[in-house]
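Key result, reporting period 2: structure in, sequence out.
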């Protein structure tokens, strides 16, 4: 889809579908007013009768039949102005664009005025909302040809102020960078585990590294053995798929210290010997969402040419049961030298992360952010509305919260108090890999914290957020691509003073 910014009046724009955003409970703005006049007062009547209430995420279609230049007109609800956020705008675009596609439109125009926020951010949000709302995963549909024909080919964001075109084009570029990366991540996460093995992920990262001139290192099993990554190798021991430890460096920050991003990359989590129930086990192909988000964010950062040094780590393996698999009761020796007693082979994410976190300390990073589909307990705690955040540094937590509000990928902090550490004490090793049902998201993070030395560290638990069973306004059901936009925003604002 080609996205452009143009100056002009929406009622004069020849297009298959025009979209006008409307606030709830207020008079029409000057643009809608003009369109309404051309339509003989149809919009005002609709609102007056209550046939359309411009609540967030609602749409209403009108056929202007020649009275304005557009074939179709879609009114997109924004809700009340007093509650307005950029996310509402993303949602409106994410609803309206697929609605017009389903109606048969291939050329769409959006009006952006009267919204009253920064114009660059508006253009970015409209771009993200439409691209992400239009996303479909068709790779495994054999009759996709018919569907593909019906894609929207051009999207025009319209302004009446010629002097804003340049600014808004910048917003479109940023929106495209993060939306494209999010779409790549959604494709990776949706793909069956058989087609997204550690080896295939390493190949994907290699392609991205080539495109953007990133430095790449992929460690194989032998190299991991030599280093002493006993935790990652323990998890990998049950699988015939060779594990990969993927290290990717993006350098545009001169002598600045590295920002480290570490993503859990379990390409399939069967639970191992502590095998999971059959119900929903198919979803466990999404257990590489953290790693995918890391490469997605680095790809966005590279597209935006951010002046930073970033290192991304993807410890990648399957977690499978077999005769060679690691077992409950085993003790693994991690790269850091600390030992972990295995209570459940299903608590494997924290194990592979313990080696990755220990490894990344070699970079003496300014901050470490890990992102992982780590615990079902996080969903119990926060539901599917927030990413669980834990960590050791107030300044970075605040920055992550701000990035969450801005992108709509919101985070909520859970405490990491001393008492929780008692739950992971082991009788025979330095710690054990589960802490019981109570505070499961927290005890998992407590274990991770033992591997980051004194570097500022944030942990993001996305277990509840990587997959959605229901359509959301710009997130169709399936893989969400969560974390790409959050991490990219965190990186973009990294050096901004409060
Ligand atoms: N990958 C899972 C967490 C998960 C659960 C992600 C549901 C998405 C949906 C993780 O490896 C896991 O199995 N965690 C266990 C930990 C327990 C054994 C301490 C869990 O949450 O049940
Ligand atoms: Mn597991
Ligand atoms: Zn897992």
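The corresponding designed sequence is given below.
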């Amino acid at each position: 889809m080609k996205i452009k910014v143009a100056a002009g009046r929406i009622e004069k724009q020849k297009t298959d579908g025009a979209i006008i955003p409307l606030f709830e409970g207020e008079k029409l703005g000057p643009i809608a007013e003009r369109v309404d006049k051309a339509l003989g007062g149809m919009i005002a009547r609709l609102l007056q009768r209550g046939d359309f209430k411009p609540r967030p995420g609602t749409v209403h279609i009108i056929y202007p039949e020649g009275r304005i230049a557009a074939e179709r007109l879609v009114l997109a609800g924004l809700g009340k102005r007093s509650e307005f956020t950029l996310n509402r705008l993303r949602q409106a675009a994410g609803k309206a664009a697929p609605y017009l596609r389903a109606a048969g439109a291939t050329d769409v125009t959006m009006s952006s005025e009267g919204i009253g926020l920064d114009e660059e951010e508006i253009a970015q949000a409209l771009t993200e909302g439409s691209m992400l709302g239009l996303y479909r995963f068709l790779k495994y549909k054999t009759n996709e040809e018919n569907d593909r024909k019906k894609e929207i080919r051009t999207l025009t964001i319209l302004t009446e102020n010629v002097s804003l075109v340049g600014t808004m084009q910048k917003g479109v570029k940023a929106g495209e960078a993060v939306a494209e990366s999010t779409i790549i991540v959604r494709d990776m996460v949706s793909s069956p585990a058989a087609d997204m093995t550690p080896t295939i992920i390493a190949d994907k990262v290699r392609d991205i590294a080539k495109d953007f001139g990133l430095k790449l290192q992929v460690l194989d099993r032998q190299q991991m053995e030599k280093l002493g990554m006993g935790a990652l190798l323990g998890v990998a021991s049950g699988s015939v798929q060779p594990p990969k430890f993927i290290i990717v460096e993006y350098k545009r920050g001169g002598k600045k210290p590295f920002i480290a991003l570490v993503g859990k990359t379990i390409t399939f989590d069967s639970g191992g010997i502590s095998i999971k129930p059959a119900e929903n086990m198919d979803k466990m192909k999404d257990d590489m969402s953290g790693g995918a988000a890391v490469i997605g964010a680095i790809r966005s950062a590279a597209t935006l040419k951010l002046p930073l040094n970033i290192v991304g780590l993807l410890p990648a393996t399957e977690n499978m049961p077999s005769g060679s698999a690691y077992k409950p009761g085993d003790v693994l020796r991690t790269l850091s030298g600390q030992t972990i007693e295995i209570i459940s082979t299903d608590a494997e994410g924290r194990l592979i992360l313990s080696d990755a976190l220990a490894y990344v300390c070699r970079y003496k990073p300014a901050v470490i952010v890990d992102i992982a589909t780590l615990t079902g307990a996080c969903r119990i705690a926060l539901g599917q509305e927030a990413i669980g955040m834990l960590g050791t540094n107030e300044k970075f937590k605040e920055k992550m919260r701000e990035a969450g509000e801005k992108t709509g990928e919101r985070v909520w902090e859970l405490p990491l108090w001393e008492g929780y550490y008692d739950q992971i004490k082991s009788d025979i090793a330095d710690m054990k890999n589960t802490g019981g049902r109570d505070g499961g998201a927290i005890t998992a993070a407590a274990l991770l914290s033992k591997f980051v030395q004194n570097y500022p560290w944030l942990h993001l638990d996305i277990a509840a957020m990587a997959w959605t069973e229901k359509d959301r306004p710009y997130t169709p059901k399936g893989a969400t691509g969560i974390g790409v936009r959050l991490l990219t925003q965190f990186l973009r604002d990294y050096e901004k003073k409060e």
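The first helix runs from residue 30 to 38. Residues 269, 271, 346, 348 surround manganese (II) ion (ligand 2) (CB under 6 Å). This case is discussed further under Risks and Mitigation.
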